[in-house]
Write a structure and sequence with these properties.
With 134 residues, the chain is of the alpha+beta class. Helix content is 17%, strand content 37%. It has a domain at 58-130: Beta Barrel (OB fold (Dihydrolipoamide Acetyltransferase, E2P)), CATH 2.40.50.140. The protein starts with 14 loop residues before the first helix and ends with a strand.
Length: 134
Amino acid sequence: MTTPRRRAAIAPLPALPALLLAGSLAAHAAPPPDHPSPANAYRIMASGTPLRAETPAHTGEVVSTIDANEYTYIEVREADGTRWIAGPRTVLSRGDIVRFDDGVVIKAFHSKLLHRTFPAVMFVSGVTVTPAGH
């Protein structure tokens, strides 16, 4: 005699829609601070309004430079003093104006290539240059 097969009963999953909704909301988290809302971003793009360029955090005058491999070390005079920054190799002259954003600061940075220890160097992703006299 054969035994009839029983079908496994699947209980309804009332929590499934809530889980799917929660996962969907997490994937669409709020934009970061200072970021336009999706509606405002759409209005900006649709209107043809040019986006404002972000102003770099620092502006200073080039005092001296040292090229080393793929980096240029730049001594920069800002309103509050002089500092060293390093970024991708860039052609600069004394008196040029550079603009740059904050970067990673390493105190007592020793360059083996230059055989020199800097009091601190801020490593930046790049600089914007305005030639001296312009």
